[in-house]
């Protein structure tokens, strides 16, 4: 079996691993995007709630309503803080997975280049052999032709 042919199953395995990592990176990227979207929603809601409360407060509010507002804002701030932590973690996981994928892609490309080079070398050997055989046949024909 030729060198390139023996290496093709390895190349297939490396290519498949690279493809799986690419899909994994896409999944991590989606988690980051979803986390950022949720964080944005929480921050917008907090801004809207604060704005709405200020409008109500300008007309006067009771102590209970103020306490409820402060408690709700504290819970909302904690939810935002937790979501920020989730987004940071998701970004770190995405970055780590992307680096793994980039390494796998480099290995896949390098192996592909080796296989291609070996195929080219094998084709050259075959071409040279065929040319030599053709030259020998032509030489035999010339030597057999009577003068």
Write up this protein.
This protein has one domain (3-108). Helix 1 runs antiparallel to helix 2. The longest helix has 82 residues, at 63-144. The mean pLDDT is 90. Helices cover 94% and strands 0% of the residues. The two termini are 46 Å apart. It has 147 residues and is mainly α. The chain is rod-shaped, with a radius of gyration of 34 Å.
Q: In angstroms, what is the radius of gyration?
A: 34 Å
State the order of secondary-structure elements, H for helix, E for strand: HH
**Major sheet characteristics:** none
Percent strand: under 5%
List segments where confidence is low: pLDDT < 50 over at least 5 consecutive residues.
none
- Which range best describes the helical content: under 10%, 10-25%, 25-40%, 40-55%, 55-70% or over 70%? over 70%
The whole-number mean of residue pLDDT values reads: 90
Alpha-carbon distance between the two ends: 46 Å
Integer tally of domains: 1
Number of strands: 0
Structural class: mainly alpha
| Total helical segments | 2
Q: Tell the overall outline.
A: rod-shaped
Q: What features would you highlight for this structure?
A:
94% helix, mainly alpha, 147 residues
Write a short abstract of this structure.
The chain is an all-alpha fold. 94% of the residues lie in helices and 0% in strands.
Walk me through the topology.
Blueprint lengths: L2 H56 L4 H82 L3
